[in-house]
Amino acid sequence: MLNNKISKAVRLAIAFGAASTAVFSASSIAAEEGAEKVERIQVTGSRIKRTDLESASPVLVLDRSDIAASGQISIGNILQQIPAAGAALNTAFNNGGNGATNMDLRNLGAQRLLVLVNGKRWVSSLGSTVDLNTIPAASIERIEVVKDGASAIYGSDAIAGVVNIITRKDFDGVELSVYGGENLKYNDGRQYSADLTIGTTSDKGGLMMNVSHVTQAEIWAGDRDISSKGNSSTTDKGRLRLTSSAISSSLRDDLLAQGYTENNAGKSNAGFDLVPNGAGSTVGIGSFRDRDGDVYNYAPENYLSTPQVRNSMYVQAFYDLSDDVRVVSDFMMTNRESTQLLAAMPLTIGASFGAAASRVDIHKNNIYNPFGETLYGDSARSGVDGYVPYAGQRRFVEAGNRIYRQNDTTYRAMVGLEGSVGDTSWVWDASYIYGKNSQDVLTTGLLNLTRINQALGDNCNVSTSCVPLNLFGGLGSITPEMVDYVTFDSVSRQGLELKDYTVNFAGDAFELPAGVVGMAIGLERREESGYDTPDPLTQSGESSGNQRDATGGGFRLDEAYIELSIPVLEGLTISPAIRFSDHSAYGSNSTAKVGVEYRPIDDILLRGTWAEGYRAPSISNLYAGNADSYPSLTDPCNSVEGKVPALPGCAGVPDGYAQANTQIRITNVSSPDLKPEESESKTFGVVYNPSYIDGLEFTIDYYDIEVTNSIGRYGASRLLNECSTGDNAKSCDYIDRDSNGNVVDLRNFLQNSGDYNVEGIDFYTAYKFDTEFGSFKTSLDLSYVMTNEFDGDDQVGIQFGNAGFPEYKGTFAVDWSMGDFDAHWQTRYVDRLQNNYDVLYGAENYPGMAAEIGSYFIHDVSVGYALDAYNTKLSLGIENLFAKEPSPEYSNNDIAISTNNFSVTEYDVNMDRFVYLRATIKF
Hints:
Blueprint (H helix, E strand, L loop, with lengths): L1 H15 L9 H8 L25 E5 H6 L5 H6 L32 E5 L2 E2 L18 E7 L4 H4 L6 E7 L5 E11 L7 E11 L3 E12 L2 E2 L20 E4 L4 H9 L16 E3 L26 E3 L2 E13 L4 E18 L3 E5 L4 H4 L32 E5 L6 E19 L6 E21 L1 H7 L24 H7 E26 L2 E19 L2 H5 L10 E19 L2 E12 L3 E15 L2 E12 L3 H5 L3 E3 L36 E3 L8 E12 L7 E18 L2 H10 L9 E3 L5 E6 L1 E22 L2 E17 L2 E2 L3 E3 L2 E3 L2 E11 L2 E10 L2 E3 H6 L10 E2 L2 E12 L4 E8 L34 E9 L1
Parallel strand pairs: 2-5, 10-11, 26-30, 34-38
Antiparallel strand pairs: 1-4, 2-3, 4-5, 6-7, 6-42, 7-8, 8-13, 9-12, 10-16, 13-14, 14-17, 15-16, 17-18, 18-19, 19-20, 20-21, 21-22, 22-23, 23-24, 24-27, 25-26, 27-28, 28-31, 29-30, 31-32, 32-33, 32-36, 34-35, 36-37, 37-40, 38-39, 40-41, 41-42
């Protein structure tokens, strides 16, 4: 099997071609800089300055020309397209997104990737992820991605690797760049940007300022066939779906005579379904209903790609106080206004929908109640005479769509000193960083359950300043006055504050027979604090959205490290490092790393690393307020035969207990006693630069990363199963039931227990050459994933909704330049994927389900022309040249299992030719 996989990798490499541009290699940079002056530089992944740009750690470098050739105006989008990247949040996440764009490396999660700017930490979220769009693209000189563990060098979060964003230096003059583009066929998804950069340098100092504006317009899910259909558990538009398990026989007969139905899958002439004993109350796979009949199709009213506007400013300066001391500073600020739009709020009231929802009764004296009986939402009233419990669902379309608007501001200021120690090789730096992120979120279209309870109550009328609510008249029965009475707008606020103090020393320690030992030592103190303050109605649980408590907390982290570069023999260098950490929340820990470099000949570098890594629990992990969730779960104590099974954990549950709704209320809780996640990573690689072919290089690197004690939820299903079987009686302590046996709360806590293991091979080759027809660069970057396990479950080659784990991903690019002209072509490849729903259920059991998601090639091209007389560069490009569309998860396009019926992290969300024009002029 391994031979087959290697054979496939070789065939893919040949299909892609020879190889350079999407990634400009470090060795190519060195060749262009020339060998006249040998200068020591600091390469990301090490604190020790060196003359060789190739290190023990595999490093991917994207320079300004790569960023320009990509046609993107988002650094996050560019990084998400590299083959080693995994699934991460971006602006195509409408339901569950917040306008941010993260990066994942090796499918280990964005929280396990450290993001630096100029070698120093950037401001993160409460969950330790970084929104890469807070860093304006116009201020970036290059990006270096270290693809192995680096916690011993940089500290927490560097489990999968490090992204170091280097800003522009020594800029003189004025540069203005404008960009505009849109989808050619659909005339949507428009993007605009404008950047102004001003700078000056002198013998003593320098100053640069950049201001940037970006506008990204929305794409509607309904405007693409693949995403135009969705599935809903609520009935179509204004119809109420009613579930009742104890309705009287006389009322049942009366309702049936009026045209109501007891068949959840059937259509209701009267406007809602009556479902005895809760059967079929949740639409799941295998029970999808006719979309053109009674199921609400929410998809057309959702965004496929969300809009946002970003305004940024970056200022950096340096000044030489003396020949040996320089003061440095920078300031960066980004404001983002972003929006997500979802279909109208589903109203869920009655039993099984949480404490607030279960308080809602439909009183018999309400003027719109057609039953003549009071329907009680609280199942605890089962002993009351004439008790009729119910659960009701209805799309509140008269209130309009739910809109989530974020106003997010991130800023970060750094001031520091850099210097050298006399005539020695030793250099030092000290810095202070202050960063802050704050976000206000306005949400419209939410429902006030207290008001709804009043509007459905006994004495709701003008005299009580109450507007009765009509849920039973079908679409349009809810008037604007009713909407105004029961809806509200929510405002929540959250933020994080960062303070970071560092001091570093680096230089030559002493000399050995094979050369000089390099050393770097340093200290760092990091303080973070954060908060999340939901709307009062959200905190009290009176909102139709999930209840959420406030968050508040912080931590202090003190660290010290030492790194060495030891020449053991000629051509052989060993680089050990160790870091000691003391965290205010959990105590102390240490991490180590060893890198090995060996050059048997000048053309070949053999390299390898072994590294320990860690991720400290985030503020959200430690201190997040309790938050509701309603996943679909099967209660093991449920009995469809009318008798509770003889399970130890079901003692006290009444005979005849039947689960009223498969959506069980759980409470996600934080855990202040968490320990850090730990990892062990290994890389082995070869770098080959044949001296007999100038401009050609090959690199191949194997990686293996194991993460233990990863932080994750214990699991709601696990708690239910362990309690019911008696396998873990302590699990019952986290479950609350009412007198009828219904689960009314389940506390799903965080713990250190998960394990990840990722293993694979990265291959990169590049060739740069000149001909009489111009200069060419070609590159091939290919990622082969051998293992992608979580808790022993290998996910390689499987698509899970919005996340896919392809076995192979790659990019191949060709760049050409001649005189004032240049052109670029890049193709990206995603290997075919097996549909996870086929793995779980079998496509043969569900007609229309795609058992396999087809392989995916997408081509991007651009041409440029330099008007030297005007210092102007024009570029015209097309992304997705052949308007390639992803394969749908459901081939008949009738049922969308994931949000959009395809993964928005692996495939082009435009599904169209995106045409753009960029103009840059320098004065």
